[in-house]
Amino acid sequence: MTHPVTDVYEEIIGADEAVRDREARNGLRHMVSLSMTKVADGLIDPKLVLSWLAGALGAPAALTGLLVPIREAGALLPQIVFAGWVQSLQHRKWAWVIGSAGQGIAALAIVFIALTMEGFAAGLALCAALAVLAVARAACSVSYKDILGKTVGKTRRGAVTGVAGSVAAVAVIVFAGLLMSGLLRDVMPVVVAITFAAALWGAASVVFSWLEETASEDTEDTSVDFTPLKEDRQFRLFIAVRGLLTVTALAPPYFVLLGGGQSALQGLGALLLASAAAAFAGSYVWGRFSDKSSRKVLFLSGMLAAGFAKLAVLAEMSGWAGTAWVIPVILFFFMLSYQGVRSARSVYLVDMSPEDARSSYAALANTAIGVLLLITGAFGGLLALAGPVASLTGFAMLSLAGGLLALRLDEVENG
Protein backbone atom coordinates (compact mmCIF):
# COMPACT_ATOMS: atom_id res chain seq x y z
CA MET A 1 0.00 0.00 0.00
CA THR A 2 1.15 3.53 -0.72
CA HIS A 3 1.26 6.26 1.89
CA PRO A 4 -1.77 8.64 1.95
CA VAL A 5 0.57 11.55 1.21
CA THR A 6 1.74 9.75 -1.91
CA ASP A 7 -1.85 9.10 -2.98
CA VAL A 8 -2.66 12.81 -2.63
CA TYR A 9 0.46 13.79 -4.56
CA GLU A 10 -0.24 11.37 -7.40
CA GLU A 11 -3.83 12.62 -7.62
CA ILE A 12 -2.79 16.27 -7.75
CA ILE A 13 -0.14 15.83 -10.44
CA GLY A 14 -2.07 13.20 -12.37
CA ALA A 15 0.85 10.77 -12.24
CA ASP A 16 0.86 8.14 -14.99
CA GLU A 17 3.09 5.88 -12.89
CA ALA A 18 3.72 5.22 -9.21
CA VAL A 19 6.08 7.62 -7.45
CA ARG A 20 8.22 7.12 -4.38
CA ASP A 21 6.93 8.25 -0.98
CA ARG A 22 9.96 10.49 -0.59
CA GLU A 23 9.25 12.33 -3.83
CA ALA A 24 5.61 12.75 -2.81
CA ARG A 25 6.61 14.38 0.47
CA ASN A 26 9.07 16.63 -1.33
CA GLY A 27 6.59 17.48 -4.08
CA LEU A 28 3.97 18.64 -1.60
CA ARG A 29 6.57 20.73 0.24
CA HIS A 30 7.50 22.34 -3.07
CA MET A 31 3.83 23.14 -3.72
CA VAL A 32 3.24 24.66 -0.28
CA SER A 33 6.42 26.75 -0.15
CA LEU A 34 6.11 27.97 -3.76
CA SER A 35 2.46 28.88 -3.25
CA MET A 36 3.37 31.04 -0.26
CA THR A 37 6.18 32.82 -2.10
CA LYS A 38 4.03 33.43 -5.17
CA VAL A 39 1.30 34.97 -3.01
CA ALA A 40 3.96 37.15 -1.38
CA ASP A 41 5.20 38.21 -4.83
CA GLY A 42 1.68 39.31 -5.73
CA LEU A 43 1.19 41.27 -2.52
CA ILE A 44 4.40 43.25 -3.04
CA ASP A 45 4.32 43.53 -6.85
CA PRO A 46 6.52 46.53 -7.82
CA LYS A 47 4.38 47.23 -10.91
CA LEU A 48 1.40 47.99 -8.68
CA VAL A 49 1.78 47.78 -4.93
CA LEU A 50 5.19 49.35 -4.40
CA SER A 51 4.61 51.98 -7.09
CA TRP A 52 1.35 52.96 -5.40
CA LEU A 53 3.03 52.97 -1.98
CA ALA A 54 5.88 55.16 -3.24
CA GLY A 55 3.36 57.64 -4.60
CA ALA A 56 1.38 57.61 -1.35
CA LEU A 57 4.58 58.37 0.58
CA GLY A 58 5.38 61.29 -1.71
CA ALA A 59 8.43 59.74 -3.35
CA PRO A 60 9.64 61.45 -6.57
CA ALA A 61 8.42 59.90 -9.81
CA ALA A 62 12.01 59.32 -10.90
CA LEU A 63 12.62 56.99 -7.96
CA THR A 64 9.25 55.29 -8.38
CA GLY A 65 10.17 54.55 -11.98
CA LEU A 66 13.27 52.65 -10.84
CA LEU A 67 11.32 50.07 -8.84
CA VAL A 68 10.45 47.64 -11.65
CA PRO A 69 13.93 47.67 -13.28
CA ILE A 70 15.55 47.14 -9.87
CA ARG A 71 13.28 44.18 -9.16
CA GLU A 72 13.64 42.49 -12.56
CA ALA A 73 17.34 43.01 -13.25
CA GLY A 74 18.31 42.64 -9.60
CA ALA A 75 16.80 39.16 -9.46
CA LEU A 76 18.70 37.97 -12.55
CA LEU A 77 22.09 39.64 -12.87
CA PRO A 78 23.60 38.50 -9.52
CA GLN A 79 22.96 34.84 -10.29
CA ILE A 80 26.30 34.44 -12.05
CA VAL A 81 27.95 35.34 -8.74
CA PHE A 82 25.76 33.03 -6.64
CA ALA A 83 26.17 29.98 -8.87
CA GLY A 84 29.58 29.04 -7.52
CA TRP A 85 28.39 29.34 -3.92
CA VAL A 86 25.37 27.15 -4.65
CA GLN A 87 27.57 24.52 -6.28
CA SER A 88 29.72 24.41 -3.15
CA LEU A 89 26.74 23.38 -1.00
CA GLN A 90 26.04 19.71 -0.47
CA HIS A 91 22.39 20.57 0.19
CA ARG A 92 21.35 23.34 -2.20
CA LYS A 93 18.03 23.85 -0.41
CA TRP A 94 19.79 26.09 2.11
CA ALA A 95 20.49 28.67 -0.59
CA TRP A 96 16.76 28.83 -1.29
CA VAL A 97 15.92 28.95 2.43
CA ILE A 98 18.31 31.86 2.98
CA GLY A 99 16.97 33.65 -0.10
CA SER A 100 13.35 33.27 0.98
CA ALA A 101 14.13 34.47 4.51
CA GLY A 102 16.06 37.39 3.03
CA GLN A 103 13.04 38.45 0.99
CA GLY A 104 10.93 38.37 4.13
CA ILE A 105 13.40 40.58 5.98
CA ALA A 106 13.50 43.04 3.05
CA ALA A 107 9.68 43.14 3.05
CA LEU A 108 9.72 44.01 6.78
CA ALA A 109 12.16 46.82 5.96
CA ILE A 110 9.63 48.16 3.44
CA VAL A 111 6.96 48.09 6.16
CA PHE A 112 9.27 50.07 8.44
CA ILE A 113 9.91 52.60 5.67
CA ALA A 114 6.19 53.01 5.04
CA LEU A 115 5.50 53.69 8.71
CA THR A 116 8.38 56.08 9.40
CA MET A 117 9.49 57.86 6.23
CA GLU A 118 8.19 60.00 3.39
CA GLY A 119 9.26 61.97 0.35
CA PHE A 120 12.66 61.53 -1.28
CA ALA A 121 14.06 59.58 1.67
CA ALA A 122 11.20 57.08 1.49
CA GLY A 123 11.67 56.60 -2.25
CA LEU A 124 15.41 56.07 -1.90
CA ALA A 125 14.93 53.64 0.99
CA LEU A 126 12.28 51.71 -0.94
CA CYS A 127 14.68 51.29 -3.86
CA ALA A 128 17.41 50.05 -1.49
CA ALA A 129 15.09 47.58 0.27
CA LEU A 130 13.78 46.29 -3.05
CA ALA A 131 17.36 45.81 -4.27
CA VAL A 132 18.02 43.60 -1.24
CA LEU A 133 14.81 41.68 -1.90
CA ALA A 134 15.78 41.19 -5.56
CA VAL A 135 19.26 39.89 -4.67
CA ALA A 136 17.74 37.46 -2.15
CA ARG A 137 15.36 36.30 -4.85
CA ALA A 138 18.34 35.72 -7.15
CA ALA A 139 19.69 33.21 -4.61
CA CYS A 140 16.37 31.37 -4.71
CA SER A 141 16.20 31.38 -8.48
CA VAL A 142 19.73 30.14 -9.17
CA SER A 143 19.35 27.26 -6.72
CA TYR A 144 15.75 26.22 -7.32
CA LYS A 145 16.07 24.43 -10.65
CA ASP A 146 18.86 22.26 -9.27
CA ILE A 147 16.81 21.44 -6.17
CA LEU A 148 13.71 20.69 -8.22
CA GLY A 149 15.72 18.38 -10.47
CA LYS A 150 17.09 16.47 -7.46
CA THR A 151 13.79 16.05 -5.60
CA VAL A 152 11.02 15.69 -8.23
CA GLY A 153 10.83 13.29 -11.19
CA LYS A 154 11.47 14.52 -14.72
CA THR A 155 7.90 14.27 -16.02
CA ARG A 156 6.29 15.80 -12.93
CA ARG A 157 8.20 19.06 -12.39
CA GLY A 158 5.90 21.26 -14.46
CA ALA A 159 2.84 19.97 -12.61
CA VAL A 160 4.41 20.73 -9.22
CA THR A 161 5.24 24.33 -10.09
CA GLY A 162 1.96 24.74 -11.98
CA VAL A 163 -0.12 23.76 -8.96
CA ALA A 164 1.70 26.37 -6.87
CA GLY A 165 0.99 29.04 -9.48
CA SER A 166 -2.72 28.26 -9.62
CA VAL A 167 -3.15 28.13 -5.85
CA ALA A 168 -1.32 31.42 -5.32
CA ALA A 169 -3.32 33.11 -8.07
CA VAL A 170 -6.54 32.81 -6.05
CA ALA A 171 -5.14 35.00 -3.27
CA VAL A 172 -3.75 37.53 -5.73
CA ILE A 173 -7.13 37.73 -7.48
CA VAL A 174 -8.76 38.66 -4.18
CA PHE A 175 -6.11 41.30 -3.54
CA ALA A 176 -6.49 42.70 -7.06
CA GLY A 177 -10.24 42.92 -6.53
CA LEU A 178 -9.69 44.98 -3.40
CA LEU A 179 -7.36 47.31 -5.29
CA MET A 180 -9.86 47.80 -8.09
CA SER A 181 -12.72 48.35 -5.66
CA GLY A 182 -11.06 51.43 -4.24
CA LEU A 183 -11.05 50.08 -0.70
CA LEU A 184 -7.28 50.37 -0.40
CA ARG A 185 -7.05 54.14 -0.43
CA ASP A 186 -4.53 54.73 2.36
CA VAL A 187 -1.20 53.30 3.34
CA MET A 188 -2.19 51.05 6.24
CA PRO A 189 -4.02 48.27 4.33
CA VAL A 190 -1.06 48.02 1.94
CA VAL A 191 1.34 47.89 4.90
CA VAL A 192 -0.69 45.01 6.35
CA ALA A 193 -0.52 43.19 3.00
CA ILE A 194 3.27 43.59 2.80
CA THR A 195 3.62 42.43 6.41
CA PHE A 196 1.67 39.31 5.48
CA ALA A 197 3.98 38.81 2.49
CA ALA A 198 6.99 38.94 4.84
CA ALA A 199 5.40 36.29 7.04
CA LEU A 200 4.73 34.08 4.01
CA TRP A 201 8.36 34.25 2.90
CA GLY A 202 9.47 33.31 6.40
CA ALA A 203 7.05 30.39 6.58
CA ALA A 204 8.09 29.21 3.10
CA SER A 205 11.72 29.11 4.17
CA VAL A 206 10.78 26.85 7.09
CA VAL A 207 8.73 24.46 4.93
CA PHE A 208 11.45 24.30 2.27
CA SER A 209 14.06 23.46 4.91
CA TRP A 210 12.19 20.17 5.46
CA LEU A 211 12.97 18.94 1.92
CA GLU A 212 14.67 15.54 1.89
CA GLU A 213 17.46 16.44 -0.52
CA THR A 214 20.22 14.00 -1.40
CA ALA A 215 23.65 15.47 -0.71
CA SER A 216 25.57 16.60 -3.80
CA GLU A 217 29.15 15.54 -4.34
CA ASP A 218 31.86 17.77 -2.90
CA THR A 219 33.43 20.13 -5.40
CA GLU A 220 36.55 22.21 -4.98
CA ASP A 221 35.91 24.32 -8.05
CA THR A 222 33.10 26.76 -7.25
CA SER A 223 33.65 29.01 -10.24
CA VAL A 224 30.98 29.32 -12.87
CA ASP A 225 31.61 27.18 -15.91
CA PHE A 226 31.16 29.19 -19.11
CA THR A 227 31.64 26.11 -21.28
CA PRO A 228 27.89 25.70 -22.03
CA LEU A 229 27.83 29.07 -23.78
CA LYS A 230 30.75 28.03 -25.94
CA GLU A 231 29.96 24.40 -26.67
CA ASP A 232 26.25 23.79 -26.11
CA ARG A 233 24.41 25.00 -29.20
CA GLN A 234 21.02 24.07 -27.77
CA PHE A 235 21.73 26.14 -24.67
CA ARG A 236 22.58 29.18 -26.77
CA LEU A 237 19.45 28.62 -28.81
CA PHE A 238 17.36 28.34 -25.64
CA ILE A 239 18.75 31.67 -24.39
CA ALA A 240 17.85 33.27 -27.72
CA VAL A 241 14.29 31.90 -27.54
CA ARG A 242 13.82 32.96 -23.95
CA GLY A 243 15.34 36.36 -24.68
CA LEU A 244 12.88 37.03 -27.49
CA LEU A 245 9.99 35.87 -25.32
CA THR A 246 10.89 38.27 -22.49
CA VAL A 247 8.53 40.65 -24.27
CA THR A 248 5.64 38.69 -22.74
CA ALA A 249 6.74 40.12 -19.37
CA LEU A 250 7.32 43.66 -20.67
CA ALA A 251 4.22 44.16 -22.81
CA PRO A 252 1.31 44.20 -20.27
CA PRO A 253 1.72 47.83 -19.12
CA TYR A 254 1.30 48.93 -22.73
CA PHE A 255 -2.03 47.09 -22.86
CA VAL A 256 -3.21 49.18 -19.92
CA LEU A 257 -2.26 52.37 -21.76
CA LEU A 258 -4.67 51.41 -24.55
CA GLY A 259 -7.62 51.56 -22.14
CA GLY A 260 -7.38 55.31 -21.85
CA GLY A 261 -10.40 55.82 -19.64
CA GLN A 262 -9.15 54.25 -16.39
CA SER A 263 -7.23 55.83 -13.55
CA ALA A 264 -3.68 54.64 -12.99
CA LEU A 265 -4.64 52.62 -9.91
CA GLN A 266 -7.62 50.98 -11.59
CA GLY A 267 -5.60 50.22 -14.70
CA LEU A 268 -2.80 48.60 -12.77
CA GLY A 269 -5.37 46.75 -10.67
CA ALA A 270 -6.86 45.36 -13.87
CA LEU A 271 -3.36 44.29 -14.94
CA LEU A 272 -2.81 42.44 -11.67
CA LEU A 273 -6.24 40.83 -11.88
CA ALA A 274 -5.65 39.68 -15.46
CA SER A 275 -2.26 38.28 -14.52
CA ALA A 276 -3.61 36.43 -11.48
CA ALA A 277 -6.63 35.06 -13.33
CA ALA A 278 -4.38 33.85 -16.15
CA ALA A 279 -2.04 32.25 -13.64
CA PHE A 280 -4.95 30.45 -12.01
CA ALA A 281 -6.36 29.26 -15.32
CA GLY A 282 -3.09 28.41 -17.01
CA SER A 283 -0.35 27.48 -14.53
CA TYR A 284 -1.41 23.90 -13.91
CA VAL A 285 -2.43 23.20 -17.52
CA TRP A 286 0.75 24.70 -18.96
CA GLY A 287 2.77 22.84 -16.32
CA ARG A 288 1.32 19.48 -17.33
CA PHE A 289 1.79 20.28 -21.02
CA SER A 290 5.39 21.35 -20.37
CA ASP A 291 6.08 17.95 -18.82
CA LYS A 292 5.11 16.45 -22.19
CA SER A 293 6.94 18.95 -24.40
CA SER A 294 8.19 22.27 -23.04
CA ARG A 295 9.53 23.06 -26.52
CA LYS A 296 6.02 22.99 -27.97
CA VAL A 297 4.71 25.13 -25.12
CA LEU A 298 7.32 27.78 -25.92
CA PHE A 299 6.24 27.70 -29.56
CA LEU A 300 2.51 27.91 -28.78
CA SER A 301 2.98 30.61 -26.17
CA GLY A 302 5.02 32.73 -28.55
CA MET A 303 2.40 32.40 -31.27
CA LEU A 304 -0.48 33.21 -28.92
CA ALA A 305 1.32 36.20 -27.40
CA ALA A 306 2.07 37.61 -30.85
CA GLY A 307 -1.55 37.10 -31.91
CA PHE A 308 -3.09 38.81 -28.88
CA ALA A 309 -0.60 41.68 -28.95
CA LYS A 310 -1.60 42.29 -32.57
CA LEU A 311 -5.28 41.94 -31.65
CA ALA A 312 -4.84 44.68 -29.05
CA VAL A 313 -3.29 46.91 -31.72
CA LEU A 314 -6.21 46.25 -34.06
CA ALA A 315 -8.66 47.02 -31.24
CA GLU A 316 -6.97 50.37 -30.68
CA MET A 317 -6.89 51.24 -34.37
CA SER A 318 -10.55 50.32 -34.83
CA GLY A 319 -11.70 52.28 -31.78
CA TRP A 320 -12.75 49.18 -29.80
CA ALA A 321 -10.10 49.70 -27.13
CA GLY A 322 -12.29 52.31 -25.45
CA THR A 323 -14.93 49.67 -24.70
CA ALA A 324 -14.57 48.68 -21.04
CA TRP A 325 -14.17 44.91 -21.48
CA VAL A 326 -12.11 44.66 -24.68
CA ILE A 327 -8.58 45.35 -23.47
CA PRO A 328 -8.96 43.44 -20.17
CA VAL A 329 -10.14 40.34 -22.08
CA ILE A 330 -7.30 40.54 -24.61
CA LEU A 331 -4.87 41.16 -21.77
CA PHE A 332 -6.09 38.05 -19.95
CA PHE A 333 -5.30 35.83 -22.95
CA PHE A 334 -1.96 37.53 -23.46
CA MET A 335 -1.07 36.86 -19.82
CA LEU A 336 -2.17 33.27 -20.34
CA SER A 337 0.53 33.07 -23.01
CA TYR A 338 3.01 34.60 -20.58
CA GLN A 339 2.21 31.85 -18.07
CA GLY A 340 3.02 29.30 -20.76
CA VAL A 341 6.42 30.91 -21.35
CA ARG A 342 7.15 30.95 -17.61
CA SER A 343 6.28 27.30 -17.15
CA ALA A 344 8.03 25.99 -20.25
CA ARG A 345 11.27 27.96 -19.89
CA SER A 346 11.77 26.61 -16.37
CA VAL A 347 10.99 22.99 -17.22
CA TYR A 348 13.07 23.06 -20.40
CA LEU A 349 16.15 24.43 -18.64
CA VAL A 350 15.94 21.84 -15.84
CA ASP A 351 15.42 18.96 -18.26
CA MET A 352 18.14 19.98 -20.71
CA SER A 353 20.84 20.71 -18.12
CA PRO A 354 23.32 18.02 -17.02
CA GLU A 355 22.56 16.95 -13.46
CA ASP A 356 25.89 18.17 -12.11
CA ALA A 357 25.73 21.55 -13.86
CA ARG A 358 22.18 22.81 -13.35
CA SER A 359 23.28 25.72 -11.15
CA SER A 360 25.75 26.92 -13.78
CA TYR A 361 23.22 26.56 -16.56
CA ALA A 362 20.59 28.45 -14.55
CA ALA A 363 23.01 31.22 -13.61
CA LEU A 364 24.32 31.67 -17.15
CA ALA A 365 20.81 31.66 -18.62
CA ASN A 366 19.33 34.05 -16.07
CA THR A 367 22.24 36.47 -16.21
CA ALA A 368 22.01 36.54 -20.01
CA ILE A 369 18.25 37.08 -19.77
CA GLY A 370 18.79 39.90 -17.29
CA VAL A 371 20.88 41.71 -19.91
CA LEU A 372 18.42 40.91 -22.71
CA LEU A 373 15.56 42.09 -20.52
CA LEU A 374 17.20 45.50 -20.23
CA ILE A 375 17.76 45.58 -24.01
CA THR A 376 14.19 44.60 -24.92
CA GLY A 377 12.87 46.99 -22.27
CA ALA A 378 14.86 49.82 -23.84
CA PHE A 379 13.58 48.73 -27.27
CA GLY A 380 10.01 48.94 -26.04
CA GLY A 381 10.68 52.27 -24.39
CA LEU A 382 12.02 53.74 -27.63
CA LEU A 383 9.01 52.48 -29.55
CA ALA A 384 6.76 53.93 -26.84
CA LEU A 385 7.84 57.39 -27.97
CA ALA A 386 5.51 56.74 -30.90
CA GLY A 387 2.80 55.36 -28.59
CA PRO A 388 1.78 51.98 -27.12
CA VAL A 389 0.64 50.70 -30.51
CA ALA A 390 4.21 50.88 -31.82
CA SER A 391 5.54 49.08 -28.72
CA LEU A 392 2.99 46.28 -28.95
CA THR A 393 3.62 45.87 -32.66
CA GLY A 394 7.35 45.50 -32.02
CA PHE A 395 6.73 43.08 -29.15
CA ALA A 396 4.41 41.00 -31.33
CA MET A 397 7.17 40.63 -33.93
CA LEU A 398 9.73 39.57 -31.31
CA SER A 399 7.30 37.10 -29.76
CA LEU A 400 6.54 35.60 -33.16
CA ALA A 401 10.27 35.21 -33.81
CA GLY A 402 10.76 33.57 -30.40
CA GLY A 403 7.96 31.10 -30.94
CA LEU A 404 9.21 30.07 -34.36
CA LEU A 405 12.78 29.76 -33.12
CA ALA A 406 11.57 27.40 -30.36
CA LEU A 407 10.78 24.83 -33.05
CA ARG A 408 14.53 24.42 -33.54
CA LEU A 409 15.01 23.30 -29.93
CA ASP A 410 15.47 19.60 -29.21
CA GLU A 411 12.83 17.60 -27.37
CA VAL A 412 14.28 17.00 -23.90
CA GLU A 413 11.38 15.55 -21.86
CA ASN A 414 11.75 12.07 -23.37
CA GLY A 415 15.52 12.07 -23.53
What this model shows, in words?
It is built from 18 helices and no strands. Helix content is 79%, strand content 0%. The protein is an all-alpha fold and 415 residues long. The longest helix is centred in the last third of the chain and has 55 residues, at 264-318. The two termini are 31 Å apart. The protein has 2 domains: 1-210, MFS general substrate transporter like domains (Growth Hormone, Chain: A, Up-down Bundle), CATH 1.20.1250; 224-415, Up-down Bundle (Growth Hormone, Chain: A), CATH 1.20.1250.20.
Rg for CA atoms: 21 Å
What is the string of helix and strand elements? HHHHHHHHHHHHHHHHHH
Tell how many strands the DSSP assignment holds. Answer: 0
* Number of H- or I-type helical stretches: 18
- The chain-level mean pLDDT equals 82
What is the CATH third-level topology name of the largest domain? Growth Hormone, Chain: A
Number of domains: 2
Decide which structural class fits the backbone. mainly alpha
CATH C-level of the largest domain: Mainly Alpha
> Which percent band covers the strand fraction?
under 5%
Shape: globular
Give the name of the CATH architecture of the largest domain.
Answer: Up-down Bundle
The main β sheet shows up as: none
**CA-CA gap between termini:** 31 Å
Helix percentage: over 70%
Q: Which parts are unreliable, with pLDDT below 50 for 5 consecutive residues or more? A: none
What's the CATH H-level superfamily name of the largest domain? Answer: MFS general substrate transporter like domains
